[in-house]
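Predict the assembly for these two chains.
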Amino acid sequence: MLELKQMNRAVIVGHKSIFEETVDALHKSNLFQIEDFNEDKSGLRIGRPFENVDAVSKKLIKIRSIASLLGVKDAESKKQNTSAVLSSLDDTLEKLDAELDVKAEKKSQLEAELKEIDSLKKELLPFSNISLDLDLYRGYEHLSVFTGYVNENVESAVSKVTSSYEIFYDAKESTVVLFVAKDKATEVANVLADFGFREVRVPQVSGMPGQALSEIDSRESGLVKQIESIDLEIESLKDKYADFILASNELLSIEAQKSEAPLRVATSESTFMIDGWVPEEDFAKLEDIVKTATNGRAFVSMQEMTKEDENVVPIEYDNPKVAAPFQEIMDLYARPKYKELDPTSLIFISFPLFYGMILGDIGYALILLALAVGIKKAISSEAIKPLMNILIYCQISTLIFGVLYGEFLGFPLASLTLHGETVAGLIPGFATINLFASPIGGEMITYPVHRTHLVMTMIVFTALLGLVHINFGYALGFINENRKHGFTAALMEKGSWMVIEVGLLLAALGYAAVLPAATTYAGIVVFLVGFVMLLKGEGIKGPIELPSLLSNSLSYTRIIAVGLSSIYIASTVNLIAFEMIWEPGTPIGGMTIFALIVFLAGHALNTALSIIAPGLHSLRLQYVEFFGKFYEGGGRKYNPFGYIRKYTEEN
Amino acid sequence: MSDPVTATATMMDPAGLKAIGAGLAVGLTGIASGIAEKDIGSAAIGAMAENESLFGKGLILTVIPETIVIFGLVVALLIS
């Protein structure tokens, strides 16, 4: 349970004539992780890709560009028969490509036309309010035509220069069209320059500008319609071919993986040698698969694992299915190293435990449980599923602690009598039962446990729980260290902490007169022994970290602290809604609705906080306080040579 | 009515002072956590932008100063 999957280093050797069959079999088995070969002085060379690599990658590029052009997304679909897809692949791909080419070309043509019209329209706009045929702007021998923008009407200024002119001025667009005799053109140009004249080219069209504009508009809308219809056709192509594209993309990706495999493998003139990793339990299976595929002509041999190998072994978890979702939490931190213990199964217990202890509310547990189950059902994504499973485990734990604490959405379920005053609970007739007096703070332990009245006891209890958890971490650290560096190192580095704790405990008990006074001195001696061991094991770093023993276990008091803050938010919402805004028993009216809105909104907010706060704090207790004692991590993910098919069937 | 010294003394309600103390404990430690976390958090986001797999480490480093406010909260609970 705490162990990772044992891996074997294996080498597969054979003649090049069976190279393709071997790679094919390995790919299909999806068991063997190829270790990339780097050329060295051994004389072996990196292999050359199989012959079909060019054809496959060309097709793959084509299909991927089509997929991105059509916007084909990954989607659930029926698995297709591989040989059927393969036999029709070339023809269908060609047909699809041709069809798409025609459509894309037509579309780009139309778009270019649309652009052209658009720029013509922009050129025409300045003249739209001048009712003068566009043909009349050009073709004069003795006349100069000025067309452009001016700051204000120039007629009076022009009239001072010459009396023979014809002017059109559009105040709205501030466009001017001015006809003057050619010999006066220079002077008029000077005058116009004073008014900030900017020339505008007259577009080469004929007819009245207004009419030309409306023609352009109608052509434009026609073009837009055509483009839309082409888009629709492309969309229908997508619907028709989406399955084909997904399936062929998958098949071609597999082919490409296989044909490029020799690039990762050592070869000589006529042999190949594939180096890599396989889980120990699957070694025989792998051997069998390779032998069958090559008629026993390829050899699979197991290699001795060296010390250096241990740093590069790909890591695969080996957890019971129920604990497997928590591997996500492990991966978030780091995969274990090969020789390390895999704490997934421990996180499986402690993460929901702390989460439940923090939240501990029946109402929130039920809401979040429904939410998690709903999301898990609705979204079939492989990435979401483990997270929802974790949430479900956490809510089950929350439900159990909710019953223990007797809380429902911040309301106490049972009535509580303190100092002669009774606070009513949600369930009538359910009164809190006194169990026994807590040794701390003069508090009374009751059922249900009222956290708000047991603060001192809970603080001490959670800190002690933390101490237990931390020591569990030291014990795991001891095992890890023992495996890596031997018993002495383990004893000095991790065992020393426990010796120190025993020393402190003895000294404290002696001091508190629980045990005879002499124990104090014994405790001090034990502590000093532990201290020296720690100094030897960890160096100066050890004593510096000594206070962490206290701060780490006090850190677990967050279990009660965060829990209380959650209760107080919930009960404040209840107080505002059902006491300050509207009190049950008073007449129902507008305020009742308002109170309900406040109630729902407040608890919606607290529900969101109920995932984040306990989740994050529980996670932190694992990562910082617990993992810090034993866990190193940094392993490589086991990623076997193969492909998990989604759209096609294995043939 | 009586002499002014007793009058002031009765105005200083111990429960109120306790509440102020508790509020200060949570509030000041909250600010402290915030100051500490802001630098770590932004650095962690920066690191994550370069390499997504640093999320776990970034989260841990970011929440380490959270302990400050937890201690503040515990102290507030002890006071009240």
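The mean pLDDT of chain A is 89. The first helix of chain A runs from residue 19 to 29.
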